[in-house]
Known about the structure:
By secondary structure, the chain is α+β, with helices and mostly antiparallel strands. Helix content is 34%, strand content 21%. The protein has helices at residues 41-54, 83-92, 121-134, 142-149, 157-166; strands spanning 7-8, 15-20, 23-30, 33-38, 65-66, 69-74, 77-81. The chain is elongated, with a radius of gyration of 21 Å.
Amino acid sequence: MISFGYCQSNADHTLFMRNCRGKIILLIVYADDIVVTGDDKEEMALLKERLAQKFEIKDLGMLKYFLGIEVARSDKGIFISQRKYILDLLEETGMLGCKPAESPIKANHKLQAGVEKSVDLGRYQKLVGKLIYLSHTRSDIAYAVGLVSQYMYDPRESHLEVVFCIL
């Protein structure tokens, strides 16, 4: 990408940017998925041609789904959600048909370290990690997720109960 005149972001090394004639092109890479966007259609087409010369690529058109985030466009703007990600997570945990909680955590709920029986560390970390990622589009769970993430290295039964309440 640098040989094509793009600059690599210092904040995210998978993001490349090019500002040309007051127009910007962005490319982000995750494993074998690439998203190209910008306001210069000619430069975007040229970039796709250059990439096709070096790699086997397939243009899937307008972005609809990337890394668990759904993208929808309308006259009012661009909207993102993680609906499919949530449904997959609920199915994975056996909670797809569960009754929704009024709140992700009870008011003034206190969590304590090391009081009761331990739970599966790997499972807990995986679930909390998925909830952290989900909080990008669901700010309503951010506080509760922040609380349970404090126990990532020694989770107990009450911590896992709160994780399931968040779900």
